[in-house]
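Good morning,

Attaching, inline, the backbone tokens for the sequence recovery test we're adding to the shared suite. The designed sequence is right after.
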């Protein structure tokens, strides 16, 4: 029943998907947008809302995959990008905006003594791993189970399933250990003297779906220092969202390298690697041709692109005030509480949890109630993985779309553009969506 209603309501998206299937693998341009029987196609967006090609208005919690702290088409960013378009979209040269942009990052993140801009967050983690190897003269990178660092070979290696197309040698260069277990990490570092770096999402794996304990982050810092290993904070998600200075500021930890993206670029493409000067300066030219031929190489047509720089500057000037981070986090806390109230009232097994300004819905799974009333997932695979195995992610998202809300799979990001009215409407939509799911295949009961 739900799928029939979905097909009828989003018929324009169905038509576009039919065309897309003749062009793209599975009709998609991003794996995360996979949705059966077809994804919704958006035509425009403003603030916390977007409109699909059929004209339906949706409350949006994708927020550009977390890149839009100020919401869609924020006037300040629109003005900055529009002005730069008239001056040139690609100057093929250094330009003043890249200097101002870097200075803003450095002012917000003291750990960033040097910085190099990239074209994406994936490129940022790739470059950070390369710098760690070059600095230490070692080869192996330690990752944590469930933590996402982009789609390049080393980042994708080391999971429970071996992705196609990755050589065995690359798989062996990644060592995966469980998070929140400092003794396991220490044993890995002790028994593998070839470890160059440890990379972690400090806000938790898969944009916080697998939370990490604050003490564990401090343990990771202590252990990497003890064993002479480069600590890489992947702050593509947490950078400028957890605090104006990112997770570094939030937890009071200074990493050796930090990877940035999303909010850094004000919703436009880009990324960056920053950190200790002696590490990042391995990218620098020395003037000795023989030596420079062996330096860490890094190119990229759109590095520090003027449009991304203009948007990034406008964004970080807002971030400097501290207000966007505070406001989005407060809204997120209210939404998490409201959604948990719905689950409790309907006696549905599950819980909603989050940190900073993101949240995750865990249906049919067990959680641990913390002293402050928040929830902590017990599964090591992540709530999304369990829901996906049961088909609940797809059912929940379709039901929410029918009720006028677009979740980022089983969760989402808050922005300063969301309002209390949006939160109330979302809680009401969640209530109705659960009823749809109950009528259309059942729900896990308490």
């Amino acid at each position: 029943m739900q799928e029939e209603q979905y097909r009828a309501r989003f018929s324009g998206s169905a038509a576009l998907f039919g065309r897309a299937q003749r062009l793209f693998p599975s009709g998609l341009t991003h794996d995360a947008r996979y949705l059966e029987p077809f994804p919704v196609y958006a035509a425009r967006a403003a603030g916390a809302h977007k409109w699909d090609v059929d004209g339906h208005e949706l409350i949006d919690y994708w927020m550009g995959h977390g890149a839009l702290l100020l919401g869609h088409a924020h006037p300040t960013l629109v003005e900055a990008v529009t002005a730069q378009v008239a001056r040139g979209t690609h100057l093929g040269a250094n330009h003043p905006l890249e200097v101002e942009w870097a200075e803003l990052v450095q002012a917000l993140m003291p750990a960033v003594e040097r910085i190099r801009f990239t074209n994406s967050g994936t490129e940022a983690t790739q470059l950070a791993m390369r710098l760690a190897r070059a600095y230490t003269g070692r080869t192996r990178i330690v990752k944590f189970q469930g933590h996402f660092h982009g789609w390049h070979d080393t980042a994708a290696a080391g999971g429970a399933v071996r992705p196609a197309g990755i050589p065995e040698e690359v798989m062996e260069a990644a060592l995966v250990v469980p998070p929140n277990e400092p003794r396991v990490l220490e044993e890995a570092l002790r028994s593998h003297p070839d470890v160059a770096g440890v990379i972690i999402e400090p806000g938790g794996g898969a944009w916080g779906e697998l939370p990490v304990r604050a003490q564990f982050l401090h343990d990771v810092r202590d252990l990497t220092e003890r064993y002479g290993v480069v600590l890489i904070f992947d702050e593509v998600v947490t950078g400028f969202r957890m605090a104006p200075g990112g997770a570094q500021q939030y937890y009071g930890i200074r990493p050796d390298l930090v990877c940035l993206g999303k909010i850094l670029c004000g919703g436009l493409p880009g990324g960056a690697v920053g950190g200790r000067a002696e590490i990042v300066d391995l990218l620098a030219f020395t003037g000795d041709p023989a030596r420079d031929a062996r330096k860490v190489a890094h190119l990229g047509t759109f590095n520090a692109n003027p449009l991304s720089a203009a948007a990034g500057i406008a964004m970080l000037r807002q971030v400097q005030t501290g207000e966007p981070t505070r406001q989005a986090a407060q809204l997120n806390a209210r939404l998490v509480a409201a959604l948990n109230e719905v689950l409790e009232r309907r006696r549905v097994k599950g819980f909603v949890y989050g940190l900073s300004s993101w949240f995750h819905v865990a249906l049919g799974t067990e959680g641990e109630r913390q002293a402050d009333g928040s929830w902590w997932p017990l599964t090591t695979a992540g709530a999304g993985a369990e829901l996906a195995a049961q088909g609940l992610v797809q059912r929940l998202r379709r039901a929410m779309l029918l009720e006028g809300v677009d979740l980022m799979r089983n969760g989402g990001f808050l922005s300063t553009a969301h309002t209390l009215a949006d939160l109330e409407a979302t809680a009401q939509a969640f209530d109705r969506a659960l009823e749809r799911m109950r009528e259309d295949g059942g729900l896990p009961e308490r």
